[in-house]
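Recall from the previous lesson that a structure prediction takes nothing but the amino acid sequence as input. Here we apply that procedure to non-specific serine/threonine protein kinase from Oryza sativa subsp. indica. The sequence below is the only information supplied.
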Amino acid sequence: MAISHLLLRFFLLLLAFSLDDAPHHHCTEAVATTLPPPPPPPFSFKFDFSNTYTYRLEDLRFEGTAAVHGATVDLTCNVAQCTTGRMSYGRAVPLWDRATNEVASFATDFVFKIVTPDNVARGDGMAFFLSSYPSRVPPNPSGQNFGLIAGDADDAGDGPDRFIAVEFDTYDDTFERPRPAGDHIGIDVSSVADSINTTSLNFSRNGAMRASITFDNVTRMLVATVQFTDQTTASRAAPVQVSATLGDPRALLPSEVAVGFSTANGATFQLDQILSWSFNSTLASPHPVVKGCLWTSISTSSQKERGSRKVCDCWSSHISVLVWSILSWCKWRSSNRDIDKRTGGVRQFKYNELAAATNQFSSENRLIGAGPFGEGYKGFFKEMGRHVAIKKISKESRSEGSSKNRNFYDEVKTISSAKHKNLVELVGWCVKRRWNIFDFMCWCREKAHTIFLVYEFVDNSNLRVHLHEKEAVLPWTTRYKIVKDICAALVYLHHERRPFVLHRNIKPNNILLDKEFNAKLADFGLSRTTDKVRKVRYLDPECRKTGKFKRSSDVYNFGIVLLEIACKKDENSYAKVWSRYLDKSLMEVADDRLRGEFDERQIERVIVLGLWCCQPNIDMRPTMQQAMDFLETDGPLPELAEPETSSSKIGN
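The prediction returns the following tokens.
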């Protein structure tokens, strides 16, 4: 009984240590001398300024007029005078690792308001920035440069004054090159004059807005998106996005940077407010914030000696129980940290968040045609102000076992780091676990859990629906645009990503369309987690023989989809189109629903490209880069090799 009581007390103590919000713990010295510090997790934080339990003032650095007022951080004063305000994270944030030269990928989300008196006068706007640490407001900053640099807006920051910023500009300045029209967002690198910008929402509507900024360390692409958070306003104003490929961050900024918000008012004024802010990086902080006293109690040798004496005084049976409990706890904690590291810092949702967003996964929220490997639901996150598509990976389609679970986390990292306008964005993920004391203590027994993936919601169904189910015929100009969009996505996955990514299941169901019929490729990168049910029509015959997928397999899938886009529904198989190619009568297989309203040269090139991609000999197929070059030029058509008779049934 004594051992059982000791185990119960020790387990409760360990459970208390695992609670991140607990400010202090009273530790036993015996434990302090036994546990080495775990590896630090990827750097992240999340603040909701309406909830004082989510942040501490010492976590933040305020400069100028910036201060917390109620449920918001006010960066400026709403008065008619020149004011400058900054809020930044209170400690250095890792941008790149000096030891390994690894550059961080990062993502930040924040909700903000720009309030103007009587909605007439306007200030200059605000900016999210990365700069040298610690943050400092330059002397005599002006409103037109958002308090980022001293002097005129044409000046550029140098040395410690260099910065990378995303501006939310509310003033029509004449110095910007190119000159934008009205409110806009822009990307600035050490200068606010030469920015990459786009016309944006009317920031001064006094509505709350959500901004999302991501940086990919592989492509060096910085992408910023902004939209109103309330559905009423959001329905009138579509989200806007701006992106830019940056230079090497190691040449732009030091390894540790300040991140935060900066603003300045000129002759006119406005109130710039931050309501919430989160930040996630793939690198660990070199200066971790230690909570509790579990590790800090190791600091003095006298404490170690006292702890050692206490351990020696314990019964051997108690020591065995304690050691096993400690190992169980370490395994549990390291598993959670390993998940954060493997997934690259992309947001992990709680199951109850997904349930609330989907009205408890109601049938009204279920998406039609979610795919053979799981159910899909439409959800809305009020905090984020956006609709999402939530996919539940079914147990029947998922391979079980701990190695498959680890593969899932690796693939989440792959998907989240793939940033391209023609790929569906992964917003986050969730694993629904069922923990009990037996699972905790018997950590050698791992169980598979229910997996959820949270994607951006693409609101115009998929290509299969528009090609085969809707009465309205998809015009050729739209089809040709979709072809090039899919090709661009595959060029990115095959040739611009390092390492490259295979899709393995390209078909019309996985090509989603938005309201402007921009195509986005979905369900890439999930091959090892899911044993997908693939239709024979889209499966490369070479894969059927060898069971191995290559880039040429994706090329084959792409070719079959091209034939389906351009040809009649009952004559779009490879064998039938190939016979027309030999007869030099390709136009006879063009989709007759188009009623001849197409560019003959374009449709011929698409059909020939489809045949080229489906060549039975994989060495004769083009790469995706060659396919894109073929679409974008008007060169001669390739001479295609005639397939062997045994291969004539491919694509049926």
